[in-house]
C-alpha cells in the first residue's frame, strides 16, 4: 500500500507580516499545497509577487506513492533547480514494456531514458511523490513563499474590492488574486460555479502499492526493481503499471480495476486476498509481486465535467490542476499537467503589477491551458479503452498492431499513447515557458489571443497490420451539443475518419432540422450533404427512446465491400459498439447496398439508460472500403 511519510520540516513559515513584502508585487493566495499549487507559488514568486499558500492539512504527511514525471514537466523542475536536488531519489527507466496480461510482450522500447532526453531535452523519471513535494516546498521557501498549514478555507468573498478568505481557524486573508489549487474536492470550484459540484465516478478504482526492496526476497523480482523499467500489463477491464523508485530501492505498483466501492466512499482499506484474486491467471511475474503485499488501499477514480471558464467574472479567482481538469492516471499526466498550469500562470503574471487588471493575463493563461488540459483528459479515457479491451476481435486486432511494430519504428497511430508518435510529442514536447514567451513576443499585450494547436485524435487502424488496402471515405462530421440538465455532448463522424480534438461551435454551422446539432467543421467538401436531422425527443431524455432521422444527398456511389465501425457513447455508457459490413448495417437504418448517388435517409432508435452521468462523450463512426 502507499506509505505515510511525514514532512517534519514543513511547519508553518513565518507570518507574512514579519517578512519583507514586495511593494510592486501582487498579493496572491493559493488554496492548496499540492504539487500544482506549489508549482504556481514558485513561478508567481519568481515573477515578483507576494505569495501565500493555504493548506488544510496541519502537516504535509501525504500517503506515499510513486508518480511519473514526464519531460513536459521535468524541464520545469530543472529550470527551477528542483530536479537537481532530488534526482538521486529518482529513477530514469531504461525501457518501457507493454505485456499482455498473460505475460507476452506486446511492445518494448529499449534505451527509453536516452530517447526521452534526446527527443525532448529533459528526462522521463519515476519518483516518490513526497520527494517531489519536499523539493518544491524547499524551493518555494527559498523564494519567500509563505506556507500556512491547518487553514481550511471556509468562506471566499469575491465581491469585495479585494477577495477575502476566511479559514477554519478564524484567520482572514485579503489579496489581489486567489488561485484555486485545492484538488478534486475543490471549495474554490464551488464558489466559482455558485453551486455544489461533486466529483463523478469513472467506474474504475486503483489499488496503490509501494514495496520496499527488503519486502521482496525473490532474486528475479529484486533484479527488476534494481534495473529501472516501466512495465504495463493490459487485460480485460483492467491494467497494471509498475516502476522503480528511490534509486532502485522501492517499487511502485498501481492496479486499475472496476470500481466496487459504495458511491459515497472515495477511499478505504482493501482486502489483499480479494486483490490477488482479481489477477489470478495473469503473468506470474506480476502475481509474485502481489504475493509480497501485506496491506492495500482502494481509491475510487473520479473525474469532473469540463468547466465553461476557469476565471471568475471579476478576474480575481482562477482555477488550476485537479480542481478544474482532474485526470485519470492512465497517462500519468495529472501531476505533470498541474505543474504546467502553475508554470504558465506564474509566467503570464510576470508583467502585472498592483492596480492593473488581471483579466487579460488570466485569459492568456486560460487560453494556453484549458484546451490542452481538457484534451489530455479525453486522451486518458481513450488510453483506458485501448488497455482494457475484453478478449475478442478488437483485442486481437490491437495485439496484431502491437506485435507488427515490436522491435521496429512506430510510424502510425498506436494503442499505447505512451509511445504513439501522434500523441507522445504533443504531450512531452510541450514547453510551458516557451508557450507564454511566444505570446508575449507576438502580441503587444498579454490579453491578445493565441493560436492553440491540437493533436489529431489518435486511434489504431484495425487493418494497419494486414496487407489490405483500404480507402477512408469521409462523408460528414457533426457536433451534437445538447443543453439542459443532462449536459451531454456528442460527436459523430459518419463514414469518415476520426476528428481532431479541437471543438469550435459556430452558429454558421448549425445543422438544419429539429435538433441541437452543429457541424464540427465546414461540410462543403463532404461526400454526404446533410439536409435535415430530426431528434425525438429533442433534446434526448434519460430513460426514453431516442429516435434519429437524417436526410441528405450522397455525392458518390458506395459499393459492396464497404465496412463500418460504429461506437456510440452516451455519457460514459456504451450504447452501440460494432463492426460489420456497411451493407448489412444500413439495413438497420432502412437502406440497402449499393448506395447510389442521390437522396439518402437514415433512421435509428436507441433506448437511453435511466441514469446518465453529466459528462461530455464521443459518438464515433468510422467506415472504410476493402479494395
UniProtKB/TrEMBL annotation:
Database matches in InterPro entries: FAD-bd, FAD-dep_Monooxygenase_BioMet, FAD/NAD-bd_sf, GM2-AP_sf, Ig_E-set, ML_dom, ML_PG-PI_TP
Keyword Flavoprotein among UniProt keywords: yes
UniProt domain MD-2-related lipid-recognition: residue ranges: 517-626
Family matches, as Pfam families: E1_DerP2_DerF2, FAD_binding_3
GO biological process: intracellular sterol transport
GO terms of molecular function: FAD binding; monooxygenase activity
UniProt KW keywords: FAD, Flavoprotein, Monooxygenase, Oxidoreductase, Signal
Superkingdom per UniProt: Eukaryota
CDD domains: PG-PI_TP
PANTHER family (alphabetical): MONOOXYGENASE, PUTATIVE (AFU_ORTHOLOGUE AFUA_2G01680)-RELATED
Similarity comment: Belongs to the paxM FAD-dependent monooxygenase family.
UniProt-recorded name of the protein: Phosphatidylglycerol/phosphatidylinositol transfer protein
Organism per entry: Macrophomina phaseolina (strain MS6) (Charcoal rot fungus)
Phylogenetic lineage: Eukaryota, Fungi, Dikarya, Ascomycota, Pezizomycotina
Amino acid at each position: 500500500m502507499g506509505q505515510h511519510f511525514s514532512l517534519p520540516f514543513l511547519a508553518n513559515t513565518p507570518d507574512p507580516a514579519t517578512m519583507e513584502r514586495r511593494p510592486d508585487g501582487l498579493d496572491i493566495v493559493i488554496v492548496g499545497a499540492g504539487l500544482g499549487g506549489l508549482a504556481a507559488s514558485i513561478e508567481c514568486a519568481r515573477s515578483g509577487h507576494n505569495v501565500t499558500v493555504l493548506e488544510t492539512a496541519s502537516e504535509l504527511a501525504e500517503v506515499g506513492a510513486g508518480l511519473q514525471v514526464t519531460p513536459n514537466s521535468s524541464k520545469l523542475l530543472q529550470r527551477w533547480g528542483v530536479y537537481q536536488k532530488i534526482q538521486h531519489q529518482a529513477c530514469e527507466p531504461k525501457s518501457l514494456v507493454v505485456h499482455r496480461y498473460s505475460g507476452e510482450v506486446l511492445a518494448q522500447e529499449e534505451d527509453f531514458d536516452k530517447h526521452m532526453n534526446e527527443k525532448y531535452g529533459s528526462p522521463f523519471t519515476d519518483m516518490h511523490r513526497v520527494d517531489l513535494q519536499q523539493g518544491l516546498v524547499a524551493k518555494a521557501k527559498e523564494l519567500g513563499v509563505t506556507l500556512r498549514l491547518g487553514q481550511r478555507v471556509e468562506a471566499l468573498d469575491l465581491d469585495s474590492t479585494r477577495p477575502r478568505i476566511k479559514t477554519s481557524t478564524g484567520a482572514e486573508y485579503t489579496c489581489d488574486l486567489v488561485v484555486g489549487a485545492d484538488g478534486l474536492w475543490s471549495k474554490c470550484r464551488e464558489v466559482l460555479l455558485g453551486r455544489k459540484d461533486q466529483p463523478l465516478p469513472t467506474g474504475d478504482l486503483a489499488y496503490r502499492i509501494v514495496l520496499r526492496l527488503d519486502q521482496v526476497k525473490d532474486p528475479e523480482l529484486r533484479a527488476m526493481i534494481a534495473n529501472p523499467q516501466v512495465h504495463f500489463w493490459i487485460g480485460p477491464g483492467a491494467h497494471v503499471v509498475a516502476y522503480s523508485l528511490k534509486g532502485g530501492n522501492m517499487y511502485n505498483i498501481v492496479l486499475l480495476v472496476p470500481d466496487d466501492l459504495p458511491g459515497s466512499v472515495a477511499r478505504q482499506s482493501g482486502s489483499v486476498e480479494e486483490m490477488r484474486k482479481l489477477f489470478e491467471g495473469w503473468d506470474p511475474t506480476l502475481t509474485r509481486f502481489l504475493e509480497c503485499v501485506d496491506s492495500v488501499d482502494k481509491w475510487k477514480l473520479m473525474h469532473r465535467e469540463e468547466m465553461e471558464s476557469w476565471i471568475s467574472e471579476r478576474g480575481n479567482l482562477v482555477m488550476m490542476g485537479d480542481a478544474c481538469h482532474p485526470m485519470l492516471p492512465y497517462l500519468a499526466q495529472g501531476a505533470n499537467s498541474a505543474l504546467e498550469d502553475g508554470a504558465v500562470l506564474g509566467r503570464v503574471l510576470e508583467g502585472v503589477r498592483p492596480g492593473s487588471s488581471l483579466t487579460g493575463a488570466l485569459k492568456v493563461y486560460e487560453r494556453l491551458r484549458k484546451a490542452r488540459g481538457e484534451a489530455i483528459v479525453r486522451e486518458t479515457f481513450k488510453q483506458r479503452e485501448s488497455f482494457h479491451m475484453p478478449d475478442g476481435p478488437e483485442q486481437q486486432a490491437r495485439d496484431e498492431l502491437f506485435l507488427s511494430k515490436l522491435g521496429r519504428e512506430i510510424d502510425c497511430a498506436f494503442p499505447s499513447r505512451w509511445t504513439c508518435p501522434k500523441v507522445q510529442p504533443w504531450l512531452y514536447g510541450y514547453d510551458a515557458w516557451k508557450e507564454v514567451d511566444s505570446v508575449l513576443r507576438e502580441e503587444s499585450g498579454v490579453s491578445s489571443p493565441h493560436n492553440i494547436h491540437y493533436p489529431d485524435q489518435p486511434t489504431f487502424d484495425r487493418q494497419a497490420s494486414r496487407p489490405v488496402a483500404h480507402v477512408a471515405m469521409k462523408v460528414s462530421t457533426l457536433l451534437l451539443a445538447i443543453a439542459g440538465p443532462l449536459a451531454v455532448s456528442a460527436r459523430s463522424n459518419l463514414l469518415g475518419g476520426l476528428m481532431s480534438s479541437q471543438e469550435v461551435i459556430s452558429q454558421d454551422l448549425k445543422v438544419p432540422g429539429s435538433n441541437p446539432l452543429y457541424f464540427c467543421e465546414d461540410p462543403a467538401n463532404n461526400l454526404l450533404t446533410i439536409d435535415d436531422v430530426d431528434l425525438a425527443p429533442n433534446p434526448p431524455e434519460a430513460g426514453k427512446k431516442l429516435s434519429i432521422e437524417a436526410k441528405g444527398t450522397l455525392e458518390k456511389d458506395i459499393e459492396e465491400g464497404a465496412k463500418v465501425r460504429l461506437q456510440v457513447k452516451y455519457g460514459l455508457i456504451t450504447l452501440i459498439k460494432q463492426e460489420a459490413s456497411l451493407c448489412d448495417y444500413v439495413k438497420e437504418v432502412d437502406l440497402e447496398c449499393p448506395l447510389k448517388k442521390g437522396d439518402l435517409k437514415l433512421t435509428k432508435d436507441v433506448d437511453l439508460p435511466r441514469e446518465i452521468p453529466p459528462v461530455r462523450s464521443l459518438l464515433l463512426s468510422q467506415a472504410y472500403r476493402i479494395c
